[in-house]
Design brief:
The protein is mainly alpha-helical and about 450 residues long. It has 21 helices and no strands.
């Protein structure tokens, strides 16, 4: 095989491997998400809303009403309009009574702003609270998240990233409503006690505790379940009895188990996480990050080898004497081995620096990633060393050019193989993440043993 042909093959393989790097990189979670325009997302959401199953639509309505409550906290003049809209939304809810409680919270906010004493709230609120002794307080967030996951899957995201991105659409709408509602219901219960209505006070507290118990035990976002557990423990410890006191302490232990484990886990890497939160599977995440970093390193070295082989092509083709193929092959192979070893050492010895560099690939403020440039610089330095160590001083440039051509060909093949491994690792990461999120994100962080702290709560009835 002639030198021009070998050079052409090396350059073509180099270009192909860099394209493969581009495709593999675009398959990573955050780069893939960045390819989806906001307009496409909005259109997909609008198209999906009309065909959502009933529970998911109920989850949408409840989320909207809770956001209305949050808006009302900051925009007093909008409260009458928001109450009417919430009333219309609640009329469409037939399988949960959370909408009635949201209306109670909105009316409480109105009464509070009008300066009406809490002792006079009961006649206004009692119709909403009557008949809830055995009501369901389902929030339908899992069903809503499942419907939004299908939207993101249709937009091209992997199964795990689609589930995480679905949480961005849903957000955490119920927190402000829940905190306000629980606090004001306790004040209302105290007002009923002072008025001599022990039955009314007991009904208020039981209803709140049933709501909180269900929201702790039902599947849902960890933030909502932990908030409900905190509020329920606080409510039970305000008026402790034997069983209720044990339940409250178990809830505190459950929350502490999650908090402590989450504090010990690193955050999911910015390159992989479409939402803020702890890494759920460190093994698969680190494996994918290492391969992605190695791809960047090899990409920089391959590009440098392509530039060097092109720049030195004329000297190699016409200036290198015959019979030097073995030396050129050994030199190119040696450079590839040294580049690979240097890259692997950098990955193991400077993990945080490599993580920061990967962060640069998805940040507009941190600048260009450094790994490809360091690898490219190492490549040029090794080629210069080859030229200096050449036995024939008059043929140094030609020998370096041949070494660069061989290195380009071998690095291209190595980069292509690493990109294929990265794609496979991305698929495994997405599958594993989806499995953890489908089962229980909270359990994935706190560990399966933490669930035992909820046994007393399951057996307890408010």
């Amino acid at each position: 095989m002639g030198r021009p042909t070998l050079l052409a093959i090396g350059l073509l393989l180099g270009a192909g491997s860099l394209l493969e790097l581009r495709w593999a990189w675009r398959g990573l979670p955050v780069p893939k998400l960045e390819l989806v325009s906001p307009q496409r997302v909005q259109k997909a959401i609008a198209d999906a809303r009309s065909s959502m199953p009933g529970p998911a639509r109920a989850g949408v309505l409840l989320a909207i009403i809770s956001r209305h409550f949050t808006t009302a906290l900051h925009e007093p003049d909008a409260l009458p309009r928001l109450i009417e809209d919430a009333r219309a939304g609640n009329a469409q809810l037939t399988t949960t009574q959370v909408g009635r409680l949201q209306l109670v919270a909105l009316n409480m906010l109105g009464l509070e702003r009008e300066g009406v004493p809490i002792a006079e709230w009961w006649p206004k609120l009692q119709p909403y609270l009557a008949g809830l002794e055995s009501a369901s307080f389902a929030h339908f967030l899992p069903e809503l998240l499942a419907a939004n996951t299908e939207i993101w899957t249709g937009l091209g995201l992997g199964p795990g990233s689609a589930r995480r991105s679905a949480r961005n659409i849903v957000g955490f709408p119920h927190g402000p409503f829940l905190q306000y509602f629980v606090a004001r219901m306790e004040k209302l219960a105290q007002a009923r006690e002072e008025a001599g209505d022990a039955g009314g006070a007991d009904a208020c507290r039981r209803m709140v505790r049933r709501l909180l118990r269900q929201w702790v035990l039902d599947p849902g976002p960890p933030a909502l379940r932990l908030l409900a557990a905190d509020l329920l423990a606080e409510s039970l410890l305000d008026r402790p009895t034997g069983a209720a006191k044990d339940v409250a302490r178990d809830l505190q232990q459950w929350r502490a188990a999650y908090r402590d484990r989450a504090a010990q886990r690193p955050l999911s890497a910015p390159l992989l996480s479409t939402t803020y939160g702890p890494a759920l599977d460190l093994a698969s995440e680190n494996r994918l990050l290492n391969l992605a970093a190695l791809c960047l390193w090899l990409g920089g070295a391959t590009a440098a080898a392509m530039v060097a082989s092109l720049a030195l092509a004329r000297w190699w083709i016409v200036g290198e004497p015959a019979g030097q193929a073995e030396r050129v092959l050994v030199g190119g192979l040696s450079i590839v081995v040294l580049v690979m070893v240097a890259g692997l050492v950098a990955l193991s010895a400077a993990q945080q620096t490599v993580q920061d560099d990967l962060h640069r690939t998805v940040s507009d403020q941190l600048g260009w990633p450094r790994l490809p440039f360091v690898a490219g610089g190492a490549m040029f330095a090794l080629l210069a060393l080859v030229a200096l160590l050449s036995f024939r001083s008059g043929r140094r440039i030609a020998h370096a050019g041949g070494t660069a051509a061989i290195a380009c060909l071998l690095l291209a093949l190595t980069l292509a193989g690493t990109c294929l491994l990265t794609r496979a690792a991305t698929d495994r990461y997405e599958t594993r993440l989806a499995e953890l999120l489908d089962h229980s994100e909270l359990e994935a962080v706190a560990g399966p043993e933490a669930d035992r702290w909820l046994d007393r709560l399951r057996a307890w009835s408010p």
